[in-house]
Amino acid sequence: MAAKGKKFEEEVRDLEAIVGQIDSGELTLEESITAFERGVALIKSLNQKLDEVERKVELLTRNTEGRLQTSSLEEELVPKNDPDGDEDDEPF
User: Fold this and answer.
1) What are the tens digits of pLDDT across the range 39-52?
2) Separation of alpha carbons 75 and 4, rounded Å
């Protein structure tokens, strides 16, 4: 299983190494399955870390008065001229 204290970049390197081992074809079936399980655990850990970072991301913007303000990434993704989040006025 992926170590909790590892940095994101370390886990990515570990995952790349696992993929390389599996791709090499030098592992036995049992070793491949074990490596695959380790890879899945790393992917879960990496996804959790990405989710945490995404929640923390805030974008600095200037308001109409020129002052800096923060807003969440999700707020920035919704077009400002479209409050309901739809990008067009098409019915579908």
Assistant:
1) 999 999 999 999 88
2) 31
Report the residue count for the chain: 92
In angstroms, the CA 56 to CA 53 distance is 5
Q: Name which of 88, 91, 54, 53 is nearest 73 in CA terms.
A: 54
Quick one: pLDDT band at residue 69, thresholds 50, 70, 90? confident
Please name every residue paired with 68 in a beta bridge, in sequence order, or none if there are none.
62
- The pTM score is 0.59
Tokens 């380790």 sit on residue: 38
Q: Hey, where are the domains in the chain?
A: 8-55
Whether the CB-CB separation of 39 and 19 falls below 8 Å is answered with yes
Task: Give which of 20, 15, 61 is closest to 42, Cα–Cα.
Answer: 15
